[in-house]
């Protein structure tokens, strides 16, 4: 099965909607599991990792939730295909770099993805658009229970599920959401918010997780510890914090519209001017400018323009997606030119922004 044909087109991905999706790009729940009797991937020989892959792939084959899924080893995927999965947040950058027993399982809807032999034998995750932590957890919990009837997990009555990293021991759960927070960035409130979130024992990371930048004003918020708290407690805690952040972002946008509309108009107007006219643009600059344009769309400054346009461009301008679009290997300089061409062409029918609409800054 060809992964590039299996993946949904970027236009379809961009049209996926969910609660609070003007601020929350996506919700994710991930579980870390290991198989009893096998060394963890970091210490395992290739033969052990391959045996784990075969066991997991065999268990997956009979599950209704993963009927018609994509399942293969990373060895059989090209570097481009692995990077496509990273850019869609379906696998980690670390997993993309692994071969020799590494594998991936993905359902048709792209809501369920399993990484085999990443840091742990099995890292399964559920992804949903918007703020849907409970829905993602329900789907993943059902999958975990189904798999556990076919696989024997490494489990301690005292500590819970055993994992390669001590911070994942216990429930093995990681709950996170990807947030678009340009209002807090523009009003210079983002650092106090991050500090407050960190004090609550939660982590704030960039676009592609730990050690990455918050490109396009996109931040990931997740729990840090899994031991000593139930899955439900972790979900409720994160959901409460996320709703507070959403309120802060909505209030920041309202403040910008009501008290500093010229500054806001200037930022969004300049972003549109660059995107609509640039002939060379790097990925980082394009992401940051598209973030501001997306904010303008949300604030009614681009009448008739749907948010799916900016969300699709967010994906299409990433290096692997851009390379796939042109069906050839591209150097960085070539990508910067083609990225600018793509954006200019897509914005050709989009008129320059008008002033922000006061009512658009209020909460939905």
Automatic annotation (TrEMBL):
Q: What controls its activity?
A: Appears to be allosterically activated by the binding of pArg-containing polypeptides to the pArg-binding pocket localized in the C-terminal domain of McsB.
Q: Where on this chain is RDXXRA motif of the pArg binding pocket involved in allosteric regulation (motif)? A: 335-340
One Pfam family per UniProt: ATP-gua_Ptrans
Binding of ATP, residues: 26-30, 89, 123, 174-178, 205-210
UniProt key word ATP-binding: yes
InterPro entries xrefs: Arg_Kinase, ATP-guanido_PTrfase, ATP-guanido_PTrfase_AS, ATP-guanido_PTrfase_cat, Gln_synth/guanido_kin_cat_dom
Give a GO biological-process term: phosphocreatine biosynthetic process
Listed Gene3D superfamilies: Glutamine synthetase/guanido kinase, catalytic domain
Domain named Phosphagen kinase C-terminal: residues? 23-252
Q: What class of enzyme is it?
A: transferase
Q: Catalytic activity, per the record?
A: L-arginyl-[protein] + ATP = N(omega)-phospho-L-arginyl-[protein] + ADP + H(+)
- List keywords of the entry alphabetically: Allosteric enzyme, ATP-binding, Kinase, Nucleotide-binding, Transferase
A Gene Ontology molecular function term for this protein is: creatine kinase activity
EC number(s) per UniProt? 2.7.14.1
Taken from the UniProt entry, a GO cellular component term is: extracellular space
Q: What does this protein do?
A: Catalyzes the specific phosphorylation of arginine residues in proteins.
Q: Which family does it belong to?
A: Belongs to the ATP:guanido phosphotransferase family.
Instruction: Please report the name of this protein according to its UniProt entry.
Output: Protein-arginine kinase
């Amino acid at each position: 099965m060809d992964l590039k044909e299996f993946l949904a087109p970027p236009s379809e991905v961009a049209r996926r909607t969910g609660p609070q999706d003007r601020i929350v790009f996506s919700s994710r729940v991930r579980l870390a599991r290991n198989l009893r009797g096998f060394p963890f991937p970091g210490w395992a020989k290739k033969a052990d990792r391959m045996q784990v892959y075969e066991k997991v792939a065999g268990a997956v084959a009979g599950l209704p939730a993963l009927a018609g899924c994509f399942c293969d080893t990373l060895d059989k995927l090209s570097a481009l295909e692995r990077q496509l999965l990273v850019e869609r947040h379906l696998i980690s950058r670390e997993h993309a770099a692994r071969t020799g027993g590494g594998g991936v399982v993905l359902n048709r809807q792209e809501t369920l993805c399993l990484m085999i032999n990443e840091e742990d034998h099995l890292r399964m995750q559920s992804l949903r658009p918007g703020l849907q932590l409970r829905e993602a957890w329900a789907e993943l919990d059902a999958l975990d229970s189904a798999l556990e009837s076919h696989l024997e997990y490494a489990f301690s009555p005292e500590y819970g599920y055993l994992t390669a990293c001590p911070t994942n021991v216990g429930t093995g759960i990681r709950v996170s959401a990807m947030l678009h927070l340009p209002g807090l960035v523009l009003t210079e409130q983002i650092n106090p918010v991050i500090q407050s979130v960190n004090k609550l024992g939660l982590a704030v990371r960039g676009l592609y997780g730990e050690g990455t930048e918050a490109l396009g004003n996109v931040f990931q918020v997740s729990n840090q510890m899994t031991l000593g708290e139930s899955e439900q407690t972790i979900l409720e805690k994160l959901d409460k914090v996320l709703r507070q952040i959403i309120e802060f972002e909505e209030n920041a946008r309202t403040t910008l519209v009501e008290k500093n509309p010229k500054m806001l108009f200037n930022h969004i107007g300049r972003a549109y001017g660059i995107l609509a006219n640039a002939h060379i643009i790097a990925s980082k600059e394009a992401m940051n400018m598209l973030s501001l344009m997306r904010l303008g769309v949300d604030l009614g400054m681009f009448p008739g323009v749907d948010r799916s346009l900016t969300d699709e461009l967010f994906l299409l301008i990433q290096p692997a997606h851009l390379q796939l679009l042109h069906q050839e290997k591209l150097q960085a300089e070539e990508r910067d030119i083609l990225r600018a061409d793509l954006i200019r062409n897509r914005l050709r029918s989009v008129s320059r922004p008008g002033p922000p609409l006061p009512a658009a800054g209020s909460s939905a």
